[in-house]
Design a protein that fits this description.
Length: 135
Amino acid sequence: MSAMLESEGMAVSSASKSGSIDIREGDWKSYLQHLAKYKGNQALADRYGDRNAYQRACALAYLGRRAQVHGGVYSTRHPHIMTPQYLADLEASNKANRYTRYPWLRALMTLLSEIEQIQDQISGSNVLSFNIAGK
């Protein structure tokens, strides 16, 4: 197996010799190479089962390494206090980034909001209660 890895130009570490998945943080090319290794590799098929299980293991290895390098959610050196103002700023920042990435999303969200308002206006007077009196 190590000869196969060396022939593909991938570095062989002691972790990959033992069978674990070794992906450096942010190395998308290595992640894709690991996924490509599954095709036709009986050892990986025996160890992980189907391709989805192997892909999940690769993703967890990538994310796990990222957590090891950058730390978890909470940082003792740079704590974040979740004040209402901080959350509002975070929401505004996320919304701006989302609309920048997906320009069509703003129009879609506006349209859905208008549809909900129209449905509320129409159905407000036509609501029937399923509550049977006396039972």
